[in-house]
């Protein structure tokens, strides 16, 4: 199989259009909204109207008919403009991909148009207090009833629940023959009886909040099940590979923004009669970050191309490597940008200190760098499974 990793003219044009939209809002808009406790609704709505949120949704459901690489480009460019949209990683990427691939005809017709134009926003919940993201150990359970399903359990660190009409829940169902639990996916309305959420007090200043969810005998109809009852793992990972690709793009946009700020400052700031960027101690770390960002971008594009081509295993390998590389690149870029600015790097007006916690999160979520390394060690190198 031959995959081209140079971006098409169409995607380059898409990037320019999204960058223009991002510049219209910018970092100040995002920061003011976050500090005031507001959402970035205006940006989300305009991105939806322009077709950017639905670029990877099939055309017959109101989308652009593109692939995950197009959606990742949108995510990266908005982050590079200083107005990242975290829920892009969740709503159109994870949930949209799963519904597109595994939803019934009725579910696709009912759910995808809203995801495409941004009028619907869905959250995704897998992480649990004890199991983390280990889908084999989750305990949230769906019990079959005469008129549908009953869910019980808890999820934690779930993004954007206060903005979502539904949550796609990873639960377990009881196999009728063996009695063993197996994963399945359910779309649960956030106003369902028995469903409650509690905001987690985070140190990161962001419009998107994190929540712990409680399912206390939440009843949903039979058609809340997305895809097959017995194909939960396959369906789950259909959404997790796009999640890693999108998370990498989110991080890379932030890394590009930090590097741009550092480079501009190094060109303008003069000490001892020359710009500080003339000194190799300043210039070389920034050049190193540029290289790291471009390498991670290439791996991200490779992952997206392999996923679009249906090469699931190679896409999974590339997506994990992209997520790892992007996490390292953004942490390094933000750290070097702050160092370039000296004391000014910690001043709010330069817009870097706010990136510090968010960039560090890229090494942890949505999959930790250690789990990405575990994947490469096991599947790429053939080493024994370590967990």
Give the helix/strand layout.
Elements: H1 9-36, H2 41-49, H3 68-80, H4 87-102, H5 105-117, E1 122-125, E2 141-145, E3 148-159, E4 166-174, E5 181-189, E6 195-200, E7 210-221, E8 225-226, H6 232-268, E9 270-271, E10 274-275, H7 280-308, H8 312-341, H9 353-361, H10 369-380
Parallel strand pairs: 1-4, 2-4
Antiparallel strand pairs: 2-3, 3-7, 4-5, 5-8, 6-7, 9-10
Helix pairs in contact: 1-3, 3-6, 4-5, 4-6, 6-7, 6-8, 7-8, 8-9, 8-10
Unreliable stretches covering 5 or more consecutive residues = none
Instruction: Predict the CATH topology of the largest domain.
Output: Butyryl-CoA Dehydrogenase, subunit A, domain 3
Computed structural class: alpha+beta
Distance between the termini: 32 Å
Radius of gyration: 21 Å
Q: How many alpha or pi helices?
A: 10
CATH architecture of the largest domain: Up-down Bundle
Percent strand = 15-25%
Keyword list:
single chain; 387 residues; alpha+beta; Butyryl-CoA Dehydrogenase, subunit A, domain 3; eight-stranded mixed sheet; two-stranded antiparallel ribbon; 10 helices; 10 strands; globular
Describe this structure as you would to a colleague.
With 387 residues, the chain is of the alpha+beta class. The protein has three domains: 9-121, Acyl-CoA dehydrogenase/oxidase, N-terminal domain (Butyryl-Coa Dehydrogenase, subunit A, domain 1); 124-230, Butyryl-CoA Dehydrogenase, subunit A, domain 2 (Beta Barrel), CATH 2.40.110; 233-380, Butyryl-CoA Dehydrogenase, subunit A, domain 3. It contains ten helices and ten strands. α4 packs antiparallel against α6 and α6 runs parallel beside α8 (312-341). The longest helix has 37 residues, at 232-268. The mean pLDDT is 94.
């Amino acid at each position: 199989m031959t995959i081209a990793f140079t971006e098409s003219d169409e995607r380059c044009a898409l990037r320019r259009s999204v960058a223009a939209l991002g510049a219209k809002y910018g970092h100040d808009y995002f920061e003011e909204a976050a500090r005031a406790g507001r959402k970035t609704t205006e940006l989300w709505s305009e991105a939806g109207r322009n077709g950017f949120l639905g670029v990877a949704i099939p055309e017959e459901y109101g989308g652009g008919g593109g692939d995950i690489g197009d959606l990742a480009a949108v995510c990266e460019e908005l982050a590079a403009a200083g107005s990242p949209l975290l829920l892009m990683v969740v709503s159109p990427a994870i949930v949209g991909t799963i519904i597109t691939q595994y939803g019934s005809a009725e579910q696709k017709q009912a759910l995808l148009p809203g995801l495409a134009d941004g009028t619907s926003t869905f959250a995704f919940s897998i992480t649990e207090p004890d199991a983390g993201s280990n889908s084999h150990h989750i305990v949230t359970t769906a019990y079959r009833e005469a008129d549908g399903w009953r869910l019980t359990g808890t999820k934690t660190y779930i993004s954007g629940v206060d903005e979502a009409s539904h949550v796609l829940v990873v639960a377990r169902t009881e196999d009728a023959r063996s009695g063993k639990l197996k994963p399945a996916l359910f779309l649960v309305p956030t106003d369902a009886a028995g469903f409650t959420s509690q905001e987690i007090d985070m140190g990161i200043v962001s419009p998107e909040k994190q929540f712990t969810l409680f399912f206390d005998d939440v009843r949903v109809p039979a058609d809340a099940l997305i895809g097959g009852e017995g194909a939960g793992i396959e369906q789950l990972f259909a959404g997790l590979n796009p999640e890693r690709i999108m998370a990498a793009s989110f991080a890379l946009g932030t890394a590009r923004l930090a590097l741009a700020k550092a480079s501009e400052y190094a060109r303008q700031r003069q000490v001892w009669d020359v710009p500080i960027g003339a000194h190799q101690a300043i210039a070389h770390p920034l050049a190193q970050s540029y290289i790291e960002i471009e390498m991670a971008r290439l791996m991200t594009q490779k992952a997206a191309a392999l996923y679009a081509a249906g090469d699931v295993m190679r896409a999974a390998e590339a997506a994990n490597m992209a997520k790892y590389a992007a996490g390292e690149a953004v942490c390094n870029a933000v750290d070097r940008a702050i160092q370039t600015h000296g004391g000014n790097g910690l001043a709010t007006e330069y817009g870097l200190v706010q990136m510090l916690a968010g960039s560090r999160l890229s090494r942890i979520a949505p999959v930790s760098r250690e789990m990405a390394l575990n994947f490469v060690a096991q599947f790429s190198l053939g080493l024994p499974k370590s967990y």
